[in-house]
Design a protein that fits this description.
The complex is a heterodimer. By secondary structure, chain A is α/β, with parallel strands linked by helices. Chain A has a single domain, classed as Alpha/Beta hydrolase fold, catalytic domain (Rossmann fold). Chain A has helices at 42-47, 73-87, 99-110, 141-148, 158-162, 168-185, 195-198, 220-228, 244-247, 249-260, and strands spanning 6-12, 15-23, 26-31, 51-56, 92-97, 115-121, 206-211, 232-237. Chain A has an eight-stranded mixed sheet with strand order 1-2-4-3-5-6-7-8, sandwiched between helices. Chain B is an alpha/beta fold. Chain B has a single domain (2-87, 194-375), classed as Luciferase-like domain (TIM Barrel, Alpha-Beta Barrel). Helix content of chain B is 45%, strand content 16%. Chain B has a nine-stranded parallel sheet with strand order 8-7-4-3-2-1-11-9-10. In chain B, helix 14 (325-339) crosses helix 15.
């Protein structure tokens, strides 16, 4: 069992990001989705056995500073490029889920040299060729929770995450998270029409993971990412919704380890 | 105290059980239930009601704008203002109001209001509103920018009316390189500006600082007083003296020859308290549209929500005033004493209230209530 992560407030351009840092090994930057951070979970613990995880809350989310001036996921991607400078990691693998996956993809198009390997878990960012991205802002949060999972009964950490009604402080953070997510993604809704033009620059080894029963972002977006990224593979997880890291953490960890462990950090995935 | 007539121009022309199948009548209820022929007829009824209100002595006629909802088929406040500018003679035309945050071109809004003011002979009162979440969805404008866009759009409109062009505007949300509108309001420097409020303390403070007339809509009187306190706080910050002319209030009201007839008409107003407000909270207040203070105020302003109030309670709270001219006079006087307002806005039609009933109500208020109120 890896040690408990330590908490840091990492200041980037004057905006402090509340960050959990833990584990040992090559650096892995973990970027959360639009719902916000939800602490250090069992999948973090598992990956921390092989990697040093940096798990920040995005500006405006959780306990991080506000950044009301930000307007887009591109702003957030630039923030994290700077974040890597500040923590002294010139090149990191990045795992991003949903909104965080989109941030990771944007960041990689801006500077693929700052990225070792890329793991995109049900990333937003592309307009689905068929179907639509669910309008997460249109639904109450409890309705949305039901839509995020294929089968809530198989979520191993359900009680820890959702067993108790949120405290007033937690509700306030949820509203704050939602507000910042809206700020960054409102229009065009959860995609960047120009991202497909730049993705071919990202020759890094990339793993795309999708829950086959994702009801938030259609899995067809995984195929679109696969076509646009020159060195990507796509893994679908059966019987799983939008958050494999929560709904099927053990399977996700196995797939990610298989991918990240496949080559030494220094030699693999260097863009040409 | 001045009286104003207002109709939301509803389109309640479908079986209610069809509307009940959807989470909300707003945004979700399919417009395949929109009846084009009936809508065409209703518009003429609605504009005839306004013309009558003008003729019988209402101080003002009020219009508003909503989208994607059968509760209001007035989809362009400035278009309606232009019609009324030509078809009415003396009443103020109260726009309540242009929904500023969803505007992409404030210069055009300034031009349209100016044109209506010119045609009406300087009778426009220009309300500005933040709008409800439904309009934000309709326009797909980021709700987190709602207040910023409201204020910047306002500032640019005022500049259009006060600063000779051409000038440049490089703001945060609006960017125009050559602003030089060749249409300015007849009223100098510009029409009076009003602002409605339901729950937002920030809006009350803002209106107070600017000296704009502030009008809470359909809230219990204690909440209205609380909002007026915020308004006074804003006014005192800049050294403004608050007079009754700065304060208004909106209720629903219908007048009839007998109490029985009035009580048949009055319950039509419940449609705007319940069915047309039924929706997940996200429809009316999407992420970031309301401040935390505004959210807290919203919970207190409508504690049980109006939809759950029985008709008798709405009447007891003076949110619906339905009765004979004598009854209306008594209630209006009571509200005036309680709130110290100079303007009382009456939503005088709703739901399926029929056209003759509405016309008779307007006539009775004009002929009996308005003169009696003036004499008090």
């Amino acid at each position: 069992m890896a040690a408990e992560p330590r908490e840091e407030m990492i200041s980037v351009g004057g905006i402090k990001a509340h960050t959990l840092v833990g584990g040992r090994g090559a650096p892995l930057l973990v970027l959360h989705g639009a719902g916000g951070p939800n602490g250090w979970r069992r999948w973090h613990t598992a990956l921390a056995e092989q990697f040093t995880l940096y798990v920040p809350s995005h500006p405006g989310f959780g306990r991080s500073d506000a950044a009301d001036w930000m307007e887009s996921v591109r702003d957030l991607a630039r923030y994290y490029l700077w974040f890597l400078d500040v923590v002294g990691v010139p090149r990191a693998s990045i795992l991003g889920s949903s909104l965080g996956g989109w941030v990771a993809a944007e960041l990689a198009t801006m500077n693929p040299h700052a990225v070792d390997r890329l793991v995109l878990v049900a990333p937003a960012g592309l307009k689905p060729e068929r179907g639509e991205i669910l309008d997460i802002f249109y639904y109450p949060l409890d309705t949305l929770r039901g839509l995020q999972f294929h089968d809530p009964g198989q979520v191993p950490e359900w009680d820890e995450l959702y067993g108790q009604p949120p405290t007033p402080e937690e509700q306030d953070v949820q509203l704050r998270n939602r507000e910042m997510a809206a700020r960054l993604t409102w229009k065009p809704y959860l995609f960047d029409p120009r991202l497909p033009r730049f993705l071919p620059r990202v020759t890094n080894q990339t793993l795309i993971v999708w829950g086959r029963e994702d009801r938030i972002i259609p899995p067809i977006c995984g195929e679109q990412y696969l076509r646009l990224l020159p060195n990507a593979t796509l893994r679908l997880i059966e019987g799983c919704g939008h958050q494999p890291q929560i709904e099927k953490p053990d399977e996700l960890v196995r797939i990610v380890r298989e991918f990240l462990g496949a080559a030494s950090p220094s030699a693999s995935g260097a863009p040409r | 105290m001045k009286l104003y007539f207002f109709s939301e121009m509803p389109h309640h022309e479908f079986p209610d059980e069809e509307g009940d199948k959807y989470p909300s009548l707003r945004l979700d209820f399919p417009n395949s239930f929109f009846n084009r022929e009936i809508a065409a007829r209703n518009y003429h009824n609605y504009f005839d009601e306004y013309v009558l209100a003008d003729e019988v002595g209402f101080d003002g006629i009020m219009i508003n704008e909503h989208h994607s909802t059968p509760s209001c088929s007035n989809v362009s406040i400035n278009m309606s203002a232009a019609i009324l500018a030509r078809t009415t003679k003396r009443a103020k035309i109260l726009l309540m109001g242009n929904i500023l945050p969803i505007q992409d071109n404030p210069v055009m809004v300034a031009e349209q209001i100016a044109m209506a003011d010119l045609i009406s002979g300087g009778r426009i009162v220009s309300g500005f509103v933040r709008g409800i979440g439904v309009e934000t969805w309709w326009a797909n404008v980021n709700p987190v920018h709602n207040r910023e866009r409201f204020e910047e759009c306002h500032d640019l409109i005022i500049k259009c009316w006060t600063t000779p062009g051409p000038f440049r505007w490089e703001g945060k949300h609006y960017h125009f390189r050559h602003v030089n509108p060749w249409c300015l309001p007849l009223q100098r420097p510009y029409p009076p500006i009003w602002v409605p409020g339901t729950t937002s303390p920030e809006t009350a403070l803002w209106a107070g600082r600017h000296g704009y007339t502030y009008v809470p809509f359909l809230v219990p009187l204690p909440i209205a007083r609380e909002l007026f306190d915020y308004y006074r706080q804003g006014a005192s910050e800049v050294g403004r003296v608050v007079t009754p002319d700065n304060l208004g209030f909106m209720i629903c009201a219908v007048c009839a020859d007998t109490p029985d007839k009035a009580n048949q008409a009055g319950p039509h107003f419940q449609w705007r308290m319940g069915p047309t407000l039924r929706a997940p909270v996200e429809y009316f207040a999407p992420a970031g549209m309301r401040s935390r203070a505004g959210q807290a105020m919203a919970l207190r302003a409508r504690p049980a929500s109006l939809s759950k109030m029985p008709y008798e309670e709405l009447v007891a709270n003076d949110l619906i005033v339905a009765g004979t001219p004598e009854y209306l006079l008594a209630r209006f006087s009571h509200i005036q004493r309680e709130l110290g307002i100079g303007h009382l806005l009456l939503q005088g039609h709703e739901s399926r209230m029929d056209h003759p009933t509405t016309m008779r109500s307007i006539e009775l208020i004009g002929k009996q209530v308005i003169p009696a109120l003036a004499a008090l």
